[in-house]
Fold this sequence. Notes:
- This protein has twelve helices and 16 strands.
- By secondary structure, it is of the alpha+beta class.
Amino acid sequence: MRTLSSELKEHIGQQIEIAGWLHKKRLLGGLTFINVRDRRGLIQIVLQEKVEVEKLRGMQIGTVVKVKGNVVEEPRAPGGAELHDAVIEVLVPVTDEPPIEIDKPIQHKAENLDTLFEHRALNVRNLQEQKIFKIRATILKNIRDYLTDQDFVEIQTPKLLAKPTEGGAEVFKLDYFDQEASLAQSPQFYKQMMVGAFERVFEIGQAYRAEPSATARHMTELTMLDVEMGFVENHDEVLDLVSSLVAEVLRRTYKLHADDLRLLNAPELMLPESGQIPKFPVAEIHEMYTKATKNDTTAEKDLIPDEERWIAEHARKQLGSDLVYAVRFPVEAMKFYHKKSDDGVTVLWGDLLLRGLEIATVPLRENNYSTMVEQMKAAGLDPADEGFKYYLQAFKYGLPMHGGCGLGIDRLVQKTIGLANIKEATLFPRDLNRLTP
Length: 437
């Protein structure tokens, strides 16, 4: 029966069998030490017999082996124990020298990223690199756990659409049996429609944006969390749900992965003791930023990236919060499905920022059928178009006041760990220049 690396110390004085990949070989004082990697970590093995050493002659890192041996306590070894009197069986030999060294720290400098992605199948065998994606998996689990506990139903919606959800030019179009279709930019229509059935829904899935942007914050294929909740009293209820979700996910992740995050040099987590995430109207941020930097942004509809960084740094230093909201965007920036404020000048929409980067858009939706039709027309859309037929059907037959968010999982992972580029938080990133591996 196979023993895993994390279980080694439980078997001191016993003979066991382990299996994994050859991770490192070294000669020290006439003894050969090897490290074998399994899904839990590393196992150190001492090879004393020449016949066993010969079995690994010409074998490269990545060779798949099975090893029997006696477990001996050794504080200097990974997990505090190692194998002696080892007998090796080579299951899958690897004789080609790998193009990268997975047993050494992987450099995440900008000039190294192409090499990192080109050899992704190998570099994720590096234990430090694996930590990124184990943390990502924990974040996804924590999101699901939190929302399920709040009575949300997880749904799955189509990614092949007859009509783009958001409209505009950032759409991937494709031939669908002699019809034109597009890849979903978000599940926007579907999650709103499902409020009419389940009240509270969420989805974690892929979204596609044909953005010709080769930046550290953009990709063409994204993993998004989409949330929608009905029977809300006001916009603050939606804002508070989303910020509470993110704050709790961060707390749980930092608790479970404290050692990993420290080794990855992640920033210390700062959240306000009151639990209330600070909110600043966009116009106020423009004024604060303009006064502080002498760079006038008061005519901007949205925050420029430097403003996002500036207000996030202000919230961290002055208010003890890694999270901050920009709220009440000007009506000129609204989507057709947003609800206007009573003043008619601003929109009930907030952007949640984490450490200087927008990770979620959190609006209240228009739920009145007639108003929705008028807002679509004002946006240059035809409500009679076949692509909007089923979306409007949900409004015509009764939707309560509702709101939600679109939250970028890749950005959340990036900022949680403190990575410089969103692509580093993604196993196989897709952008303007990369469609493989």
